[in-house]
Amino acid sequence: xxxxxxxxxxxxSAAGLxxxxxxxxxxxxxxxxxxxxxxxxxxxxxxxxxxxxxxxDAKTWRMGVSGLVxxxxxxxxxxxxxxxxxxxxxxxxxxxxxxxxxxxxxxxxWKGARLRDLLERVGPKPExxxxxxxxxDGYHTAIPLADAMxxxxxxxxxxxxxxxxxxxxxPVRLLNPGHYGTKNPKWITSIQLAKEHESYWExxxxxxxxxxxxxxxxxxxxxxxxxxxxxxxTVSGAAFDAGxxxxxxKVEVSIDYGQTWEEAEIWAQxxxxxxxxxxxxxxxxxxxxxxxxYARATGNSGVxxxxxxxxxxxxxxxxxxxxxxxxxxx
Length: 330
Ligand SMILES: Nc1nc2c(c(=O)[nH]1)N[C@H]1C(S)=C(S)[C@@H](COP(=O)(O)O)O[C@H]1N2
Ligand SMILES: [Mo]
Description:
The strands form four sheets. Strands 2-1-10-5-6 form a five-stranded mixed sheet. Strands 3, 4, 7, 8 and 9 form a five-stranded antiparallel sheet that branches. The chain has a five-stranded mixed sheet with strand order 12-19-18-14-15, with no helix packed on it. The protein is built from five helices and 19 strands. Strand 16 and strand 17 (276-283) form a beta hairpin. With 330 residues, the protein is mainly beta. It has helices at residues 2-15, 21-30, 78-82, 115-122, 145-148; strands at 63-67, 74-76, 86-94, 105-114, 130-135, 140-144, 154-159, 162-163, 173-175, 188-194, 215-220, 226-228, 232-240, 248-254, 262-263, 265-268, 276-283, 289-299, 321-328. The protein is elongated. It has two domains: 42-204, Alpha-Beta Complex (Sulfite Oxidase, Chain A, domain 2); 211-328, Immunoglobulin-like. The structure holds ligand MTE and molybdenum atom.
């Protein structure tokens, strides 16, 4: 009660406004969480690519759809893609190079068209096994045709209500559920049906399948943070499996090197194709000592993350994210 009142008062003084009490307490409490919002604002969404972002002009941009197709190859403009049946989806993207997901994992609401609807127009030949995407920055990657034909595979042209920002792939990028960022190409200029393809990162030894592994990140506290002893501290973060283990069933936190685990509260979630956000209120002991905070998730399939992780780079790890912090008494 005392703490809530304090939070409420500081919210008023910080904002200089009096909001409805409940909202105000929630908003202020969420400032202490990381991630703080279920949908990542575009300005905060991680950015990753092999070189500089490609700057494309919607007026002159064209995307070819060709290769092993039954019908005539097509050349599409942005308006052609926007004329297709639109879908709006919430999806988390995560980089394969950030296996535990501390920084390169973000969540947005995207609008686009189903890749399947486009591929059905050209009709893949029976011998077509993969769909190859070539991009304006020289990047190229392929996904299995079966994945491309899933209902959830989307060619996105909007992100959080605005046209895709340049750095996120304007005018069109792929959202390929269940797979790391490598399989979500930006600045697409051609789509080709083929028997096989060796992609940009595969040539350098990265996993050609790139299934997202079950992972949990701790946002608060941060590495090396000093946590006041004898008070309540909110440990928070995100967990994600991209649906590969049936979604996240639960998230647990340990402050005794994994001997005992406390279940965290999942405070925001959507489909398994988005991350879940979690928090756990910790009654911090009244003594100065170093502390290690562990977090792990369990998938609906029953898979539990383990400390070391069964798989490591270059396929993406499953180990715990561990934070070294310190409890300090005044
Ligand atoms: N054209 C192109 N698409 C790309 C890449 C790239 O280098 N070029 N990098 C991929 C990787 S490794 C990741 S993690 C995601 C990052 O997407 P974002 O920058 O929108 O977060 O883009 C993917 N798509
Ligand atoms: Mo990535």
